[in-house]
Design a protein that fits this description.
By secondary structure, the protein is an alpha/beta fold. The chain has two domains: about 80 residues, Ribosomal Protein L15, Chain: K, domain 2; about 200 residues, CRISPR-associated endonuclease Cas1, C-terminal domain (Four Helix Bundle (Hemerythrin (Met), subunit A)), CATH 1.20.120.920. It has ten helices and ten strands. The protein has a four-stranded mixed beta sheet, sandwiched between helices. Strand 3 and strand 4 form a beta hairpin. Helix 8 crosses helix 9.
Length: about 300
């Protein structure tokens, strides 16, 4: 089945549903139609976009997400399906009962996978991994020595230049990274809901104002895929850091085209995230001990 991510941010629009089809109108003219069953996420960041209740309820009915973004294209809110799996209550219970040692072991696996992915990207783009592959092997339970931060200090400057600092409020490549991570976060939240887990109950991330802590956890090993796309976008645009219609389309398409090796097979983003989320549910229920993560 086609998995579509639709972004509406370049002007006023009206979004409605007709015959189970999502319909987008601008200036009284229909600009696009897509079956609700194919919409993985609808991202809205323009303040003059209107939408009917049928859009929101229809997305939830078919397992899609509605993501509301602010001025800086960061997620301000997200609407997700209330029911995501036929054994959802059972899985919620197992998730709540998960012990702290188990969560720490799971976070270790996630950080190791993330640092490995960062190292592999540096090796591919710069011809060296800056010791990240070695650091990945040193990640302990709960990442108590903060290998993730140590890796980040070596990673960002090597990938985007010595002057670069990863800051959500800063200009430059950060603008593109913010948008790419927003798309990735929505995809991770969708996979978590479909697996019957609750996105607010995180393993490592915890904030009472964040309803998607688990999505922030699960997306970590997939972040370098966004970094790679933003690096390519910078080269393609000649350093022009304006987040517009073309750059957004490039980020979304590139992310959808990305392949991840997971469980010994090459898979697309949604399939990979679904397998990662499903494996997490299995760990919570005691059916397996390790997560399926990209390698």
């Amino acid at each position: 089945m086609t998995e579509r991510i639709i972004d509406i941010s370049d002007g006023p629009a009206r979004v409605s549903v007709k015959h189970s089809q999502l319909q987008i109108e601008k200036d009284g003219e229909i600009m696009g139609i897509a079956p609700l069953s194919e919409v993985a996420a609808l991202l809205v960041s323009h303040p003059a976009v209107t939408y009917t209740n049928a859009v929101l309820s229809g997305l939830c009915q078919y397992g899609g997400l509605f993501v509301l973004c602010g001025e800086k294209h960061l997620p301000a809110g997200m609407l997700m399906p209330f029911e995501g799996h036929f054994v959802q209550t059972e899985r919620f219970s197992a998730q709540v009962r998960a012990s702290l040692p188990l969560k720490k072991q799971l976070w270790r696996q996630i950080v190791r996978a993330k640092v490995r992915a960062q190292g592999n990207l540096l090796q591919e783009e710069c011809g060296r991994n800056n010791g990240l592959l070695m650091l990945a092997e040193r990640v302990g339970s709960g990442d108590c020595t903060n290998i993730e931060a140590q890796a980040a200090r070596r990673y960002w400057g090597a990938l985007f230049g010595k002057e670069f600092t990863r800051d959500r409020d800063a200009p430059g490549p950060n603008i593109f990274l913010n948008y790419g991570y927003t798309v990735l976060r929505a995809a991770a939240a969708r996979a978590i809901c479909a697996a019957g887990l609750h996105p607010s109950l995180g393993l490592h991330h915890h904030n009472r104002y964040n309803g998607f802590c688990l999505a922030d956890d699960l997306m970590e090993p997939y972040r370098p895929a966004v970094d790679d796309i933003v690096l390519a976008l910078g080269q393609k645009s000649g350093g022009d850091c304006i987040l517009g219609k073309e750059s957004k389309a490039f980020i979304i398409k590139s992310l959808m085209d990305k392949r991840f090796v997971i469980d010994g097979e090459s898979r697309g983003l949604f399939d990979s995230l679904a397998r990662s989320a499903s494996s997490l549910a299995s760990v919570f229920s005691g059916k397996r001990k390790t997560l399926l993560l990209p390698v």
